From TrEMBL, chains A, B:
Pfam families, per database record: TetR_N
Name this polypeptide is given: TetR/AcrR family transcriptional regulator
InterPro entries reported in the protein's UniProt record: DNA-bd_HTH_TetR-type_CS, Homeodomain-like_sf, HTH-type_TetR-like_transc_reg, HTH_TetR
Protein's organism: Actinacidiphila acidipaludis
Lineage: Bacteria, Bacillati, Actinomycetota, Actinomycetes, Kitasatosporales
UniProt keywords, alphabetically: DNA-binding, Transcription, Transcription regulation
DNA-binding region: 29-48
SUPFAM superfamilies: Homeodomain-like (SSF46689)
Residues covered by the HTH tetR-type domain: 6-66
Source species, domain of life: Bacteria
Length: 185, 185
DNA sequence: CCTGACGATGACAGTGACTGACATCAACAA
DNA sequence: TTGTTGATGTCAGTCACTGTCATCGTCAGG
């Protein structure tokens, strides 16, 4: 055990979520979050590259989970289907902490600066997905298009999943949304 | 005529592009840009909401152009095709200033903070496109999916158009990319 | 038990992005 | 002639973020 209370990182994440929900993102300083978590502002910036990142701690895990699912999908599966399997796997992760995901999404939706960061994370997921599809043999452009489409489905499905109180599983939302997309083409 | 040299805004945009290309975005302060354009830093922030915005002056026009094209598309055209027509119209705008578009895209691609802002602009274009498609009678989810798909095509086509020296027209890139997307489904 | 490397944190000064408030001054209208 | 307007300058202030050095439990080696 260290000299200080353990899990400073977790405390900062929780404090940030609470404060952002109460006063809003802009009205909360990094110092406020740090103080509320019992650390200094400097420590906050040692854990998070910037003030926004404190709300995106799980995004790397989400991306990794999705990519692993894609890599372990049957070799014969077409790129888009493989990518969608990845999105469904990522969705399972959110499903395990639905309440947190919903609360967080409300804050993000209310703050342009956070929306912007979320888009960057989605773009990162798109790039990672593209790479995973390339490893399966898809040509660059097909991989990019399938990845973009899958992430689109993920986003649209997420909005539906969040706004539906008694939601079916996230995977079901993905399947439904994917079907609608195919119908449009 | 005012008390000062005219077109302060245009001078700042040009100065920013030059300085970002020379030293990079982070190594250039807002004060540097202002000084180089012969104004004060305060004036810079009166014209641009933040340092990034100076590189996104044309995005509102691009969005408006695309939406107008969608609204004036034949009523019977399916949502995706109408949206793609909008993207092609937007592409024509870039085509008129290809050199500027390419130079700018290099800077944006090299700077995560600018990439992030670009994603926000694309998201805005997606939302506007969704709304335009809804006005044509498309249900919400179909409109959102078609808009996302069209903007995806726009992005992928743009990368190809930029990286191809003797490019065919932007509209041709859009058509080609759209065909590839349809083939994936 | 002593000791030195290690790792997480605190303390503090500094830069730069951005904002609010007020002053200035050419152009233009009454 | 005078009052208004609009774009700008000036200046002080907050806050995001960084570099640097000091601190002090922990743990391995002696």
């Amino acid at each position: 055990m260290g000299r200080w209370e353990p899990d400073a990182r977790g405390r900062m994440i929780k404090a940030a979520l609470d404060l952002f929900a109460e006063r809003g993102f802009e009205q909360t300083t990094a110092g406020d979050i740090a103080e509320s978590a019992g650390v200094t502002e400097r420590t906050f910036f040692r854990h998070f590259a910037d003030k926004r990142e404190v709300l995106f701690d799980g995004s790397a895990t989400l991306e990794r989970t999705a990519c692993e699912a894609i890599r372990s999908a049957p070799a014969g599966l077409p790129p888009l289907d493989a990518a969608l399997a990845g999105m469904a796997a990522g969705g399972d992760l959110l499903q395990e902490r639905r309440e947190h995901a919903v609360r967080r999404s409300l804050i993000v939706a209310a703050t342009p600066a956070l929306k912007e960061r979320e888009l960057l994370k989605l773009a990162s997921m798109t790039e990672a997905t593209t790479e995973a599809l390339r490893e399966r043999g898809a040509p660059q452009r097909d991989a990019a298009l399938a990845a973009h489409s899958a992430v689109t489905v993920f986003s649209v499905a997420f909005v539906h999943w969040v706004s539906t109180p008694d939601a079916p599983g996230f995977a079901a939302c993905v399947a439904e949304t994917a079907a609608a997309l195919r119908a449009l083409m």
